[in-house]
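Cont'd.
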Amino acid sequence: MIDISEIEKLFLLSKISIGRDELVSYSATLDDMLEYMENLKRIKADNEEMVSVLSLNEFCLNSRNEYDHLGDFGLKCSKQYLDGFIRADKVFDHDER
Amino acid sequence: MKNLFREYKEGMLRMERELGCFFSVDELGAENAFYQSEFRRCNQQVRSSVDGMVIALKDMILCKGLPVCAGSRILEGYIAPYDATVVSRLKSSGAIIMGKLNQDEFAMGSSGENNPYKVSRNPWGLERVAGGSSSGSAAAVAADIIKGSLGTDTGGSVRQPASFCGIVGFKPSYGRVSRYGIISYASSLDQIGVFSSNVKDVARILENIAGYDEKDLTSINIEVPRYSSMLGREVKGIKVGILLNFLPDELDEETKRFFDIVVLKLKQNHVELVSITIPYIESSISVYYILATAEASSNLARYDGLRYGQIYKTDFNLEQVYKKTRSAFLGEEVKRRILLGNYVLSSKHYDNYYLKAQSIRRKIRDEFEKAFEKVDVIICPTTPTKAYKIGDKLHRPLEMYLGDIFTVPVNLIGLPGISVPIGCKDFPIGLQIIGKYFDEAMVLNLAHWVQEVRKE
């Protein structure tokens, strides 16, 4: 069961405020969703293939490796983004801010 | 000629009052484009296979000078400062862009109900959902208000509403169509999709919008075939895969029946049917909702009230501006997905969820590649059920997510997939055809064949 205080923290990180009742409701839904996603944890990494992730370089034939700041509406990216489909800076120090 | 467009517009607006497909209609722009197209036609200067075709755009797609809000109050009042690449290409091809179409907020939804403004209704039954998130795009084509439309497909948001509304909805391979000028939901999954009532028109629209774009890092630099001239080829001898472990118990009886009819027709036409299994495919929904929400939490961080759209005016500090704006103007489903995305990216849970999901995504991709060594395409139903009543699943998000079970794997790996109507008892049912990377021609050809055979 996910802690209400953890949900509160996540909303703070997302720069969103909600009331106590809403927190409880989101917590319940998130519990359901996380319980459903538990099936992934049961898939064991018993060989090297399971450890490696699908990178954008493999996904797209044209991917470039160098830093490329596009500056338009939805496509700002960095090398880490190309490798992990997500901004790595957000991942690693996300909840230490 | 003057009256023709005006009569069309009056009829369109009359139907629009019942269906709620459009966010905004560009009456003046469309009328000008119509006259210019007619002039070209009279002077035998037709520009392309879509010159004069009336098309509209999901409100995730920027069209210069028109409002764009992605179905969200946080972007209310924002006017697009430039055209998306697909829009520039459609305009150069002579298509008539009628306006912007209704959708779920930030493309997050499978019914069209996650929207603070209105719910688009299914023309087959106004009490039913049109599907989502490209609800307006599907409903408008199904009601014959427009000839074609563009949507975006991140987890099935083109194919599922196409199935619910009894029309054709096609998601090309990831990278086939430029995403420049498309509001991002999940950047590794988003792709522009095409709707029309028939496969030929889908092919025509696709061949005019597809192709490399230097402004989209992820678009692929390979030739765009003339898809519309590649339809009608023989299907005898192609190998069609049927996923054995992919027909859940919740599958509608009628969906199963119509699917079996298609399988029989394929056999009668000497198509080789091959049973295949993809062991990790059952994890697709979990993988999708981890990765899509993670990417969405990052992509939607930019909506802070300062750069574009609405701002919650307050005398407090900057932090308060961010919080009050996002709290007031983002919807419940969007907040839910941002929350889940941040959860799976947090350092405590990153390994168990995000990293695990990425590695399983790779496994699913590898297994599809192995399957495609034996077959040319894979078929399955597009959705486990037909269109349901408005309000039925609105407060049961997990149940709504499970409805994406057939469509989501296609986005995870970036394959082309189409939904083509195969039958209707009360409400339409769609067949999904999945192809190999950049083999849109094969998918379109088989879909065209299925449509022709069903007419018989």
